[in-house]
Amino acid sequence: RERIREVVSKCILFSGMDFREREVVVDAMEQKNFNADDVLIRQGDVGDFFYVLDTGHCDIHVEGVGKVMDVGPGGSFGELALMYDAPRAATVTA
Prior knowledge:
single chain; two-stranded antiparallel ribbon; 27% helix
């Protein structure tokens, strides 16, 4: 939990929250580990998780466009599908 708490505290998306609000977020999160080239999100799939990157980098690709973004430590992705109850807008690989 402490590692998740530290990562969340550095994520700009949660910067406006007080300690208690961030604790609710921390309690809802779990740590996941991925290997290079693992697909975390596939474009068109149903959204099920929001990700905050602790270490490493992820590439974000959109079909027909190519690579649109690189996410590093402290970055986050996956929120759009959850917020708008919409299919994943991109594929994310580790």
